[in-house]
Amino acid sequence: MCCSNTEFRVRATNPDASAGSGGAAGTAGSAGTAGSAGTGAGGGRAGEAGRDAGSDGSAGTPGCPATCPAGEYCNTGNNRCVACSDVSRFQFAAPEPIAPSTASSRRFPRATDALGELFFRAGNEAAQQGVFFTSNLVDGGAPEALGATVNVPGEATSGPLLVTHADGTAPNFYFDRTTGAAARSLYQGRRTGRATVEAVTPMPEPFNQPAGAVGSDYSIAIASAAGRAWWMSTRRGGLLLTATLDAPSDEDPAGVFFTLGQTTCERRGIDPAPWASSDGAFLLFGALELSSSCAPLGANRDLYVGVMQQDGQPTAQARLLDDVSRAGRDETDGSMSRDLCWLYFAANESGSPGGFRLYAARRR
Questions:
Q1: Model-level pTM?
Q2: Which of 222, 226, 224, 220 is nearest to 202 (CA)?
Q3: Residue 175's beta-bridge partner residues?
Q4: In this structure, what are the phi and psi dihedrals at residue 29, rounded to the nearest 5 degrees?
């Protein structure tokens, strides 16, 4: 079972850093020996003994304290507590399950403003799916299903996302839901309670396709401070798209294409399930495991991070999150806690009962 409530809710405890002790001081050097007297009539006097003993060596650098302050993590690269908002280094401790395995597959973990709270999707992959809320990551204790404004009977709901906008009256909760003929559309509403969302409406064009069009739009990521969104669409053959949140309805959203750093291949896969930092500086996404020749190795995915420009396009090759991506396991739906100290994702071990389960990994 995963970590204590204190670790998730208050501050990131460092289980592998019980305050690093300083190194032992160096031993003082011995004094120099006296020189011999000079020979001959003009021989010099005996040389003086070396004057100074060697100085003590300095103590070693201490490691991180057992507990870093809230909003910081123990950077094992330099043994210092570092602000989680510093994303120049993306390394993670071993992931741990954050709820017991259940008969219901769980995916799309997305955090609220409060540490220890998540929205997620539950339901077997081939059956009806719904969005749930939990405030207890340790044992998953009785998650609450969102009401009928979100979870419509007979339809599959997925991709929950809670964001914070400067405008306190704007929609702040997003998700996708099946419509007719199994197509998926994006929706927005206003969260007014723990598991209550009101004023739910379809998102406008260009985030959804025009009325009457055949296709799906789903899995939205929003950088609220940057005013930009990324989402998947079946239009133009199936693309990850981006547009500003105030884009006109007739705008043709731009496609986003990632090159994967360890292979120099383009991202492959139907749904990267993107998640964006609030400032739009980076995007987490999933991509199929590929061979060196860029051929898919199967259906399993790995997690990547891409550094993004203001126009929503990547600045360079995306980097594999190799601390949490493991061969033979399907990892997807990566996201971060609001303080950027924890990574959440869903993974499915080959042959595991119940399909996907949720995991958390702290920064290191």
A1: 0.82
A2: 220
A3: 187
A4: -75, 150
Half-sphere exposure of 260 (CA within 13 A, CB side): 28
Terminal Cα distance for the chain, rounded: 20
Hey, CA dihedral for 13, 80, 306, 188, is it positive or negative?
positive
Q: What is the pLDDT of residue 30?
A: 46
Q: How many residues does the chain have?
A: 364
Tens of pLDDT along 42-72? 444 444 444 455 555 455 455 677 789 999 9
Q: What is the DSSP letter of 78?
A: T
Count the Cβ atoms, other than its own, within 10 Å of residue 100: 12
> Which position has the higher pLDDT, 19 or 125?
125
DSSP letters, 162-204, are E---SSTTS--EEEEEE-GGG-EEEEEEEEEETTEEEEEEEPP
DSSP string spanning 133-152? EES-TTT--SPEEP-TTTS-
